Amino acid sequence: MEIIIIPCHLGHPSFQVIKFLFPSLFKNLNMHNIHCEMCELAKHKCLPFPMSNKINISPFHLVHTYVWGSSKVPNISGAKWFITFIDS
Fold first, then answer.
1. Which of 6-15, 34-43, 44-53 has the lowest mean pLDDT?
2. Distance CA 8, CA 55 (A)
3. CA atoms lying within 13 Å on the CB side of residue 43
C-alpha cells in the first residue's frame, strides 16, 4: 500500500520547475518579469512586540494576535486575510 501525503500549506514550486512541467504556460514570457507577490510579502519582517511586564499565569491568559491582509490573491479556500494567535 502506497501512502501519498499532499501538503496543505502556502507555497509553490519555483517558476523554473513550473516552466519545466508546463512549458505551454510560459510561451513568449520572459522569466525575469514573473514574480509572486505572496512570496515577496511573506518575506517581509514585522516589528517585534513591545516589551511587556505582564506574566501569564494560565494557558490563554496572554495571547498575541496578528492580522495580515488584504491580499490580491486569495488562498485555496478563497480567504484574503490571515490571522495568527500565539499563546505566550
1. 6-15
2. 35
3. 5
